[in-house]
Amino acid sequence: MHRLSTRILLAALVGCAFVPAPTRAQLPDGWTFSIEAHGGGLIPLRQLGKNAGTIPQVPVLQVVADRQNSGVVGGGIALTSASGETTIRARFTTTLDGVVSGRLGVCGDPDNPLFEGALCQPVETASDVRSFAVDMGFLQGSAGDRIRASLHIGAGLRKYSFGTIDCNDPTDWQVICEFTSEIWQDQGGISPFLMGGIRLNGNLGPAVLWVEGMDYVGRYTGGSDRADGNVQNDIAVIAGLSVRVF
Questions:
Q1: Is-above-0.85 flag for pTM?
Q2: What's 110's DSSP letter?
């Protein structure tokens, strides 16, 4: 009886050795393909550019332009490794109802102006940014965690677009308007950027609900005549949903 019990125990142990762990049994055999949609907000941290010149009343004239905060929407695809630890994404994003505002530099921030008057009247027009980016994400934490963070790095290309504005004021404000509009007259074509940030992922089975904060750094190369573009540093806070297709 003792020998029979020993044989049964040994057989059970051998059988358990060949049974895959539950977490591995649930993983796909290869990489998975997902589609995603996202939306959020874009916060520019640096001025779009500046333009310097002279008029009789202002010996040293410098105007600056800023893009305002705007909403963003987009979508893309993602490939995820069998372990779920690595993700490669490709996605398109565009801003919504963006605005660029120009002003005489000495006037200060429009929300907290140093000076007021006709020369400090802002010059505004529509401005949107469309981008395509590819990035890699590296999942952190343990497989049993309900919410896991992933670190992302990548690169992409973006295109600026601006509306038109008529500078018909007969006063000196017309000169400021013209100087300001030169900052975005030459839209600079397509420019590269680098990106990096962190994403929080909530696993919903075949779908992942996520929210992320990404930093985008790249130069705006537009600007005509004496206008120069600056290196742009934009923070995007975005939420999205990824759904596994296969």
A1: no
A2: T
